[in-house]
Amino acid sequence: MVTENTEEYLEAIWVIGEDKSRVRIIDLAEYLNIKPPSAFEKVKKLEKEKLITYDKTEGIKFTEKGEKRGKQIIRAHRILESLFSYLEISEEDMEKLSCACEHVREETVDKICTFLNHPERCPHGKRIPRGECCKNI
Ligand SMILES: [Zn+2]
Ligand SMILES: [Zn+2]
User: Taking a C-beta distance cutoff of 8 angstroms, is the pair 69, 13 a contact?
Assistant: First the structure.
């Protein structure tokens, strides 16, 4: 899978960062199934857009802006997974639907989150970042 999509990169960086304290170019390339030079090129672009910083020893780190965007995507993806799992949609379709729908607005995600009673984890046991709607519970 070759992707140019910025949000997919942010999503990948987020997921890798959940398991590793340092996100390296090689981890990102492996995760996205692309060659390290392509990952490096994209990392440089994301750095230019001020979404991340990259340093050989520190690895890839989110800026405040990048983290906010990454969190939104991950949250949408996992809330949608929870919804589709609730509807007993197959794992395969759940993944397709979650990826296709993850660019919906935050308010929409919050509505689904509220409907599901603010789940803390997705069906795969991954933590769902909290949203505005989760603050008063
Ligand atoms: Zn999941
Ligand atoms: Zn919520």
Answer: no
